[in-house]
Automatic annotation (TrEMBL):
Location(s), subcellular: Cytoplasm
Protein name: UDP-N-acetylmuramoylalanine--D-glutamate ligase
Pathway participation: Cell wall biogenesis; peptidoglycan biosynthesis
Any Pfam family matching the protein: MurD_N
Primary location class: cytoplasm
Family: Belongs to the MurCDEF family.
Top EC class of this enzyme: ligase
Domain Mur ligase C-terminal: 307-420
Annotated positions binding ATP: 109-115
Domain of life: Bacteria
Chain ranges of the Mur ligase central domain: 107-285
Lineage of source species: Bacteria, Pseudomonadati, Bacteroidota, Flavobacteriia, Flavobacteriales
Function: Cell wall formation. Catalyzes the addition of glutamate to the nucleotide precursor UDP-N-acetylmuramoyl-L-alanine (UMA).
Amino acid sequence: MKRLVILGGGESGVGTALLGKEKGYEVFVSDKGKIKEKYKEVLIHNEIEWEDEKHTESKILNADVVMKSPGIPEKVALVKQIRAQGIQVVSEIEFASKFTNATIVGITGSNGKTTTASLTHHILKQELDVGLAGNIGDSFAKQILEKDYKNYVLEISSFQLDDIVSFKPNIAVITNITPDHLDRYEYQFENYIASKFRIAMNQTKDDYLIYDADDEVITNWLAKHPVQSKMLPFSLTKPIENGAYLENETIKITIDNDQIIMPTANLALEGKHNVKNAMAASTVAHLLKIRKQTIRESLENFQGVEHRLESVLKINKVQYINDSKATNVNATYFALESMDAPTIWIVGGEDKGNNYEELYPFVNEKVKAIICLGVDNEKLLKNFSSMVDVIVETQYMSEAVKIAYKIAKAGDNVLLSPACASFDLFENYEDRGRQFKEAVRSL
């Protein structure tokens, strides 16, 4: 009996444990932190051995295979020990994919992957049996165990790709690549780019890679590191023979001389970056033979993703917008770009080596006040204090929202778009977004 040790008792860890047990592995789950009650109950109910608030090496180093949670960095001593013993380390995506024959659409990128994955799933589910997993919703492993859909849309982070071995999506999507999580990649952008491109490393000529042809990081990398898969680029600026492009406010998608044309006027999501997300999702749908009419209708009625430029409330003609999912500078770039009114910007958190320069033009043009919400705001103050009249610091969401309320005039926007991770003051970006929404509702 093979021994499967799982590091991390969260959604992906517990899903893998259940699938592993069903497939005949001897399973042990170990978490250095506390395992949430709801997950403990599942483990106990399924008679899976577990421990939390510690790692017992003797029970871990005898594994045949280790599935580690994407949140655990390589530099942790225990991970180094596991590797030194030659034990295979895999991600949930790698482990689970061995137990399904489904068609897999894998979506990665620094930004837009949740929206693109949700939108792709929204279109496909109108006509196909399809699950949505990866970084989003119920774990991939658990869905394979309980439902095993014929198709999956997976939102995949670079951390999950770092531990794949033979995983390959039939259709891969790279939305864009901008510096993010560099703290996990020795502060080398090259390492992070290479990590994203692992999504295509096992692809063959029968698979597809959909990517942003306007993104120089991607096109430069592809020029030096060719892939096996068929390439379907998308672009807002130039005609594309095989792939998607924008012409006169119309999206044109061509695959093997079969073209779909869609007006962008009625897209549910606003902003240039969402035209790109729509192109990527529609290209996937076109490949999977979804009817043109279905694709059009789905793009028009898609509701968007929570914590991503989500309109919360209008109070005294001031619009409050929750973009808590903006955990890096590039995501905040899109948020500020789409603001069409004077904006009070709530920013800050755990900085991952951010360079704020690309935001300067927007801050000069659109931002009237900045509220820094982090444990350490020194970098923000240094970058922006000369650009705005008002810049204040706080460590409480409720206070940040009250300050914004006082400063705001009719017609203004109050935007939470932190450009940073949330772990210094919040549990995660969802917790940060919900606290913002609660604070706005209780104004």
